């Protein structure tokens, strides 16, 4: 196939100074067929439709009372109100960090994470996920930006798995809900799962089972991290215009995540409206069947990390099932359709997106079963 940027062209060029008579040019009004020039983007109906529903439902909850859940409509609008209030800050911070990350040189990002993956690179990516204090939807936007900055597929997966509920604020909440010992154990196990999953993904890419990250082809020669960091600090200057540019690029770069996060919010509110939460609690004991039902609930119920944390605490404290609690937290990340669809849209690969639950869920279920024995 001819490349419109190659020097030897056999087809009309979109950068030719003048179009040959009778031949289509991408700068003429009659341009037809494939062109290397940008085309008018289509309306994102999923994004704008979900946003419209969220805005209308949130406004209705404000007018009628956010806690009036005595009807299906009240439960739906109240669910939108409560869930959005829990997740908006994570989305907002995610948008900001995406814009900020877009200003950081690609080589500096990869130098901090490790350019070639491996155990060291997975460990760095996992720790970065733990220390970045964002909810699952905010961290997803940053993770997709890391992919665009050239991180390996495995590093992105390790980052996503380690981060959603391991933030500092949620760690403190879990300390109070389930105790320090169980919280630290959950965090340690999640780190191990993140590293192992990342290594598996990079191994699958090396074997050709999964496609690699095409953005890595744009990486230049490696330079020492200290030198890159020094040069970056010297180039940074704060300004009002620069901050607005970061926010603008953050919103643009987060569209794929915002689309699915808002759609997931609507779906979660629908589940709240039509499926009583008490109906789930009676089935989630520390049994093999209860573990599978927990996995099913984590897959179906779309909640952000703040919403998942108290539910997980109830599974441990009221159902006496620590394995179910861990499974709910981790499987909610591995099977989250917002995450899966965002990964698919960013990587342009269904295989990468669907391999996330395929690789992660068996690990989570095995560890959940072992934890329930204690």
UniProtKB/TrEMBL annotation:
Keywords: Cell membrane, Membrane, Transmembrane, Transmembrane helix. InterPro entries: DUF318, UPF0718. Its main location: membrane. The chain crosses the membrane at residues 45-63, 83-102, 122-144, 156-178, 256-275, 281-301, 352-371. It is a multi-pass membrane protein. It holds the Pfam family ArsP_1. It comes from the Bacteria. One of its GO terms (cellular component) is plasma membrane. The keyword Transmembrane helix applies. The keyword RNA-binding does not apply. It is found in: Cell membrane. PANTHER family: UPF0718 PROTEIN YCGR. Belongs to the UPF0718 family. This is ATPase. It comes from Parahaliea maris.
